[in-house]
Amino acid sequence: MKTKFSHVSFLFLFVFLSLNLSSYSQEKIPLTPQEQNWMKSASRTDINGWMHIKIKGEPFERGFQYGYLTAIEYADAIRTYKAMTIQTTGMSYEFFVMSAARIHKPKIPQEFLDEMSGIASGFTKAGVPTTLDEVIGYNAYMEMTGYWWPTVISIYANSAPNGAFAKSHCSGFIATGDATKDGKIVIGHTSFTEFWNGQYMNAIVEITPTNGHKIVMQTCPGWIASMTDFWVTGGGLVILETTIVGFQGYDTTKVPEYIRARNASQYASSIDEWVQIMDNKNNGGYANMWLIGDIKTNEIADYEQGLIYTSLKKKNNGYFFGDNAPDDPQIRNLECTDVGYNDIRQQTGARRTRWPQVLNQYYGQIDASIGKTLLADTYDVYLQKINPSSRTICSHYDSDPMYYVSDPNAVWNIPFYPAGSVEGKVTTTDLAKDLNMWGIFGRADGVEFDAPKFLKENPQWNWQEGYLKSRPSQPWTEFFSNK
What DSSP line would sit under 127-190, residue for residue? Predict the structure, then answer.
């Protein structure tokens, strides 16, 4: 079903923000005539759990629009991030913000500093006082906690706790040529993460910059890069990633991943250009297995990027998939801890086994509809039956008792962990030509998450009460760039 979006008027938005920011606001600041004019070029539409946001203009201008349109959600996200950060790391959220600003700020190009300054100003004008350093820290959060922190934790603790190294966050595929129904590219992705932060990954943001290509990305409100990651670009590229699990290595002298990914997606017009920009001053942060398609040439690529080692494969027929366990043996053995590559009891090894099975099952038939089916798959290759769990393409950690994995270093090896699939996205060549895409918020298979029920059944997680939110079953929604 196609959904036509209506424009959210600036006047309605101003009233909406005025009525709903009172609990966060220290002072409501009237907009200047210039800022009011900026906001006339922006829009936000809420539908089926998503925010569809359109911003445009010079870096500060589009950043201001973005911040002003998402201030409520940002304020609530920071409330949750602060509580969860101390619980999960032992350090304050502010510690990571200050560290990110110190390490990353000198390495961020002026264009993106200006955009983040605009975001901070937009948040502030909407009643949520925010600084540039705080926006940098918010954007850098996953990189700082998952990649920088393990390299310095020994300064603050006697030993690194289990799970300190990079986790596995996504599952995805890309197909082309003989593998698809029309011979063109189909790409799909679902993000895996803890539910407390995944509940904020409900923004589809369209950016029309004054320089570079127009981009559409799925993200969190206030992030300048997707980070989840799903991109459709005016340069004719479609892009996703799955994180490299257990990755170790971080170079504080180089450029953070969220800056390189945004820069590459905004300015690259080919797979090789995109990879070249991503490689430039690679710091190892948020190390990923990238799947990239060029809808102009029908070529797809699998690019695995560690800190020391990289691997690039390309083809015009067939498919690639991402399951968090890198295929490259150097990255897998020399830059990672346990990746579960051959262990189908673990979610990485299970998905690495399942993806070829289901992609071959639909080989030659893959289109947007089949893409949605692939992301919703809950077949467990270890138990050889339908069994929504940590081992399925649509991950359900929260329903998995974890009977079968004994290794304490295996990723998220905790019974009934409140994590797993938090959304799904699919696009095709024909859709991507107009920067359109499909998205479902909540699990990729549409199964709801009832937070009060979960906490009642699993009281060991009651420390997340007041922060963990329910996510009802939602339909797939088509997002149009030009409507």
Answer: T----HHHHHHHHTHHHIIIIIHHHHHHHHSSSPPTT-S----EEEEEEEGGGBSSSS-EEEEE
Q: In 3D, which of 247, 276, 246, 272 has the Cα closest to residue 260?
A: 276
Which tokens is 294 given?
């060029």
What does the block give as tokens for 120? 């901070």
- pLDDT over threshold 50, residue 12: no
Count of beta carbons in the 10 Å neighbourhood of residue 37 = 12
Which single residue is written with the structure tokens 């129904």? 181
Cβ(267)–Cβ(212) below 8 Å: yes
Reported as a single tens digit per residue, the pLDDT across 54-77 is: 999 999 999 999 999 999 999 999
Measured CA distances, 333 to 120, 278, 304, 350 (Å): 41, 22, 13, 19
Please tell me the predicted confidence (pLDDT) of residue 337: 85
* Cβ–Cβ < 8 Å for 71, 122: yes
Dist. CA 172–CA 301, nearest whole Å:
13
pLDDT at 2: 39
Reference 301, options 425, 185, 427; nearest CA is 185
3-state helix, strand, coil in the chain (%, to 5): 35, 20, 40
**371 neighbors 188 (Cβ within 8 angstroms):** yes
Beta strands 50-57 and 43-47, pairing class: antiparallel
**Is the CB of residue 311 less than 8 Å from the CB of residue 278?**
no
- Integer Cα distance of 184 and 357 in angstroms: 21
The pTM of the full predicted model, rounded to 2 decimals, is 0.93
pLDDT given for residue 374 in this prediction? 98
Domains and CATH numbers, the chain: 28-40+59-156 (1.10.439), 170-479 (3.60.60.20)
Convert the pLDDT of each residue in 253-276 to its tens digit: 999 999 999 999 999 999 999 999
Q: Are 394 and 421 in contact (CB under 8 A)?
A: yes
Strand residues in 344-434 grouped as ranges (E):
379-380, 385-386, 419-421, 423-428
- Laid out side by side, the sheet with 230-233 consists of 43-47, 50-57, 203-209, 215-219, 230-233, 237-243, 288-294, 299-305, 310-315
What whole-number distance in Å separates Cα of residue 476 and Cα of residue 425?
9
Residue 163 has pLDDT above 70, yes or no: no
